[in-house]
Structures are given as C-alpha cells and as structure tokens.
Amino acid sequence: MFLITLLFIGQTELLLNGDFENWVNYLPEGWIKETSSYQLYQDSLQVYSGNYSAKFVLRSDVTQRLTQLVYPITPGNMYIYTLHVLDNDTMGKLRGYLRFYDGEGNQVAYFYTSYSDDGSTWQLLKTDTFICPQNAETLHVEIRLYDNGSWQAGDSAVFWVDSLSLQDLGPAPDPPYHPISDIQGLLTSSPYEDSLVKTSGIVTATFGNNFFIEEYPGGLRKGLYVYRGSASSPAVHIGDSVLVKGRVAEYYGNTQLSNVFDVQVLQTGHPLPSPIELTPQDTITEDHEGVYVHLTDAECINDSLGYGEWEINYRYRSTQKDTFLHVDNMGVDYMPQVGGHYSILGVITFTYGDFKIEPRDSQDIRFLNITEHNKRMEKKQKTYIFSSLDEASKMCMGCDIFDAFGRKIGKTGSMDTNNIKRGIYFIKSQKGNFKYLKIK
C-alpha cells in the first residue's frame, strides 16, 4: 500500500486537452488529424464527463489517426494511457495507440490498448503500465479508427471518445534479478508472467532487433526470447553477454521478455552455450523453449507448410497435441527436398500453436548426403548391399530410391535399370532403413 500511494502522489498528466473541452477551428486543441478519411465533431449529447466529447465518423477501410505529440518524455519512467469510448456501431472499432521515436525520427517502440467492444455504454480502454525505452525522445499519442473488415463505398462507423489520460508515474523501480531458468519455471507458463525482471545471458541468435539469450554453459529451461520490436539500440550480436530489463510475457504460449527498457552489453565475443544434441528419437518439449539445439539428422517430410515453414521428422509434445517439428524462416529462407536429410542448428521457439526451430542463417542448415546419413545410422541397423535394381526390388518393392546427393529419383519396381546411370544409390524401406545399391 505504501508503494501504491507514492506512485499515485508522483504521477503527472502529460496530455493537453485530454477531455476535449477546448476546440479551435473545428479541431480539439493540441490534437492533429494525421489522416483525413474521417469526420470529427465537437459533441455535447454523448459525454462521459464535462461538457463535450469528440465524435468520429469513419468513412474508409484504411486505419485513421487523431494524434497528439508529447515532448519531453523521460526514458526509464513508467507510463499508462487510458481513454473512454462509446462504440455502438458494428461497422468499425477503435483503440488507443502509442508510438515512441528516437532523436532521428525512428520508431523505437509501440504500445496499445485493446479494441473497443460494440455496446451502448461507455467503456474504459487502457494500456498496461509500460516503461519509456532508453533511446526514446518523443511520443505520439493516438486514437486509431479501424474498419470491421467488410467496408464498402458509402459505409460509415460512428464512435465517441472522452476523458483521455497519459500519466507519467515516475521512475521505474530497478526490477529484481532472476536467472533465465527461474523465469522459465517448471510449467508451461512463467511464474513471473506480467512482472518486471532483470536477467542476463549469452546471445545465441539475433533476428532483426530481437534476440535469444541463454545461461552459460546451456541446458534445458535456460533459454529466453527477448522481444524489442522496433527498438534497435544498443545493437547486440551473437556471443554478446547482456543484461536485460523488461516485462515477462506469454505471447501465445511463448515465454519472452517484452517492454524491454534497458539492454546492457557486458562483454563481446563470449563462447556460446553448447547446443543440446537431439536425434529423431528425442521429443521436443517445453523444456527446450528458447534453447540452442542441434538436430543431428532431420528428414524433411513436408516442404510446403506455408509461411516459409517446412516439417521434419522430430516430434514435439505440447498440451494439445504430439506432432512434428517445424523449421521456420525468421533467420533464413531455405528450400528443402522431401526425403532429404539435414543437420540443423538453431533455437527452439513456440508460435501459433507449434514448436519450431529457428536457424540463424544458411550455414545453420547443412545437407547430409545419403552416405553421411547411412554412416550415422549404421550402428543402429543392418545395411544391405545390392548389385542391381532388380535384386533390390525383390526385397524392397515400392521403396524410394535416392542418389548419393540425397535426391529422390524414383521407386523400386517402377524404374528400368537402363534409365539409371552407373553409380552408388540408396534404397529406403518403409521402416526408414537405408540399403546400399551399386549399379555397374
């Protein structure tokens, strides 16, 4: 209770004319129509408090904005944005939106409220308490208007907005330190969800401004995704040792740090944690989330899942299903061959209901020709040697035939030996075993 009282006493209102009581030339004082495909009126009939509200009439399927520029702002301070909305029109929706910019005009972070719900009473929309990023200098406070997805010429949507507030709650307290393994916890979601924390680790992968960190020397439950959005400073690189402050979030089941307000590079060129070696007999679980791994022998079983993803023969387990791992393209687009075998380095993440591996670049995906794959498997299975395709067909009818580079060229029983050049080939049985074939 003592802490809450101090925050309440120290808060400062930053919005000018957030109650829409003052209007100049048909616009609320201090606000800018950043777009033009909507009408804005001073209204005295639908009011949340005071004498006036702002009435919006949306006439476009393109997002529209009414904006106020707030300057100066204080990096490291806590803020909250609230507004009251009356939305009894099913043709559109509205929400509050915030955009932070650095001194060069680059957007470095953004936050937003939930969308308005259709109803006949006023509703409160608000952001979570957030922290101003270290490199931010200006803030755009916005009211955003959206079509409901079925807009046609002549359509309109009507909203009323009143009693907006942007409060500076003062300096954010230095959050407590927790190692990554504690943040990940022992269950499917973090025990520190929605809490501000400080943690550290070695950067194992970078994807734009976002990155993964892991406790050294590595292990299960010791990796974490750090989401910075459009914030790019300071730049981090693989092998950096970093200290990070932010809020723990569960983004559709993936534990991450968001609203990151401080990143410190402590050391560069640090050795990476050792990747966990995984074979197709292993199962990916929540323990692997955020962790740097090496898939030693991944077979592509579907090369076209959509969105640049492909499927491999490593199983994963979640609360909903037990199915095959995806290879995602956050770091690199790669065109695999169905039936081809690959050595893959990367980090495990969980998005849109599926566990995925994120290779960092093309060097993290190495094609294993059939000879290499067979050497890896020969300790686990017997290898047969055939001297002709006819001989192979007798023992393995309808089995896939691969050349020495892993390319599938046909099936036994359906190909003529005359159509195959001399050389080394491999026959794959329905059980997944490879058999050696030499055409003379």
Q: Supply the helix-strand structural class.
A: mainly beta
Total beta strand runs: 32
State the name of the first-level CATH class of the largest domain. Mainly Beta
Number of helices: 4
- The CATH architecture of the largest domain would be Sandwich
**Could you estimate the helical fraction of the residues in percent?**
under 10%
The CATH superfamily of the largest domain turns out to be Galactose-binding domain-like
Morphology: elongated
The overall average pLDDT, rounded, is: 87
Q: Main sheet, how many strands, which sense, barrel?
A: 7 strands, antiparallel
Rg, Cα atoms, Å: 29 Å
How would you describe this protein?
With 440 residues, the protein is mainly β. The protein has 4 domains: 2-171, Jelly Rolls, CATH 2.60.120.260; 180-267, Bacterial OB-fold (OB fold (Dihydrolipoamide Acetyltransferase, E2P)); 276-368, Beta Barrel (OB fold (Dihydrolipoamide Acetyltransferase, E2P)), CATH 2.40.50.140; 370-439, no CATH class. Helices cover 7% and strands 47% of the residues. The protein has helices at 2-10, 180-184, 370-377, 389-395; strands spanning 12-13, 23-24, 27-28, 32-33, 38-43, 53-58, 64-70, 77-86, 92-101, 107-112, 123-126, 130-131, 138-147, 157-171, 196-207, 210-214, 223-226, 241-251, 254-267, 276-278, 283-284, 292-306, 309-317, 322-327, 341-351, 354-358, 365-368, 385-386, 400-403, 408-411, 423-428, 434-439. Strands 1, 5, 6, 8, 11, 12 and 14 form a 7-stranded antiparallel beta sheet that branches. Strand 23 and strand 24 (322-327) form a beta hairpin.
